[in-house]
Amino acid sequence: xxxxxxxxxxGGPEAxxxxxxxxxxxxxxQVLVRHTAIGLNFLDTYFRSxxxxxxxxxxxxxxxxxxxxxxETGEGVDWLKKGDRIxxxxxxxAYCEERIIPAERLVKIPEGVSDEQxxxxxxxxxxxxxxxxxxxxxxxxxxxxYHAAAGGVGLILGQWAKHLGATTIGTAGSxxxxxxxxxxxFDHVINYREKDFVAEVRELTGGxxxxxxYDSVGKDTFPGSLECLRPRGMFVSxxxxxxxxxxxxxxxxxxKGSLFATRPTLFNYxxxxxxxxxxxxxxxxxxxxxxxxxxxxQRYALKDAAQAHADLEARRTTGTTVLIP
Length: 325
Known about the structure:
The chain is of the alpha/beta class. 29% of the residues lie in helices and 27% in strands. The protein has ten helices and 15 strands.
């Protein structure tokens, strides 16, 4: 038997229970993995609460990224062996000590990257990768606005965008978070609790505004995010930590300057093995080169996942957090 965090009925952090589960042995194309570190993400709270439905229903094991070692391989898996260090991101199932997972979803962790770093950066780091390199390919001279700059994706994206030559503007909700974001690549950070971020963006850009706004906050930053975009700029809504954006008339985009808008998700950008490998390679590359630092700001025991969720939703965490089995 192994241990896992499961959700039997949707609700708050108290809905997370620490259960015994049967794992079994891998079949053809599968691998049995023993986790050494598990990433914590706001997305996990959406599945727990029921905001995002679980494809297989309840009970569900939350968690979208982890690192560990190969324990056993199934038939046909010839590129992995027992003891290999691996990492992955997947919609659900990471909050556990051991699991069976398709080998095609795994990537090997290179030398110079720790298990905790890999667990903390797969989902967040590959999210930063597709946002910066594929949803809106950032180039030198671009100006970007990123909300929740002291969050896990933000601390990676700020460094990476700076490496790409962009002018980076972030928003954060406290003085400590403002300083944290500044230390991770953001040229300017606006405390949205003290200042109007739209007015500040106008002033910082001399009225030119931004080429792209990356918004994972949702309701609280809309439609202000649109006000920060230059004509034909792109609004990228990839989360809703404050609640979903209310329905709006598409004509609003033309009124604000023929804007582009998209609602991407990571798993549409790594749906093939080729895309997964390319995204992970780009991420590991900027980390190995020292252009992006991955720092673990909080650690919780796996059994304390409910406390981790409570702290995350109360904005008591910054940057990256891992659960340790």
